[in-house]
């Protein structure tokens, strides 16, 4: 293996070490912000390290056909150490700012959607309900008025019908009682 490939491999592994440090800090910040059960944290920890090792091995395959030697581990440790020494605190601070910005952006978008979509739809819904309730009360008032007018117009005829019924079938018995009596008396005669 040539010295150029070995140098590229060490440089790539140093970059991988720094990227693993960034990934570790990112994972650690998000794990701290979430309140996951311990068993789920354990599974995510395993997935993180397996994924990191898989990514490192994939890069190693691309750079030097997967040949593993001591300088590779040195490059990874050096890259991670350099990242944690120089950039870890700055990156975590930057990541917290990005998270706060994303939370602010999310709240702003929700407020905009609430103001421009949800509230107008609710207002329209309430206006329609009030309009339907008003129309229903107007319809009830009109129906009640028409019923009173109809009763007033028909009332002389109703009284005339009651008087005629009493004259035809007697004062104390109604039409159905007379029909029943007539039907029973007819049966008895037969």
Automatic annotation (TrEMBL):
Transmembrane regions listed in the UniProt entry: 6-24, 36-61, 67-86, 123-147
Keywords: Membrane, Transmembrane, Transmembrane helix
The keyword Transmembrane belongs to this UniProt entry's keyword annotation: yes
Pfam families assigned: Spore_YabQ (PF09578)
InterPro entries documented for this protein: YabQ
NCBIfam families, alphabetized: spore_yabQ
Name of the molecule in the record: Spore cortex biosynthesis protein YabQ
Organism: Brevibacillus reuszeri
């Amino acid at each position: 293996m040539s010295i150029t490939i070995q140098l590229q491999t060490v440089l790539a592994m140093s970059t991988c070490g720094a990227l693993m440090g960034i990934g570790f800090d990112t994972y650690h910040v998000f794990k701290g912000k979430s309140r996951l059960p311990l068993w789920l944290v354990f599974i995510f920890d395993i997935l993180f390290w397996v994924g990191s090792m898989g990514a490192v091995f994939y890069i190693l395959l691309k750079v030097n056909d997967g040949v593993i030697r001591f300088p590779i581990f040195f490059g990874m440790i050096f890259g991670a150490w350099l990242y944690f020494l120089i950039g870890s605190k700055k990156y975590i601070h930057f990541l917290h700012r990005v998270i706060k910005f994303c939370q602010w952006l999310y709240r702003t978008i929700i407020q905009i959607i609430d103001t421009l979509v949800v509230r107008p739809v609710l207002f329209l819904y309430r206006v329609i309900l009030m309009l339907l309730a008003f129309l229903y009360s107007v319809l009830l008032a009109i129906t009640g008025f028409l019923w009173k007018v109809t009763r007033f117009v028909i009332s002389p005829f109703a009284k005339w019908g009651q008087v005629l019924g009493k004259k035809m079938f007697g004062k104390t018995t109604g039409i159905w009682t007379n029909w029943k009596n007539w039907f029973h008396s007819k049966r008895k005669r037969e």
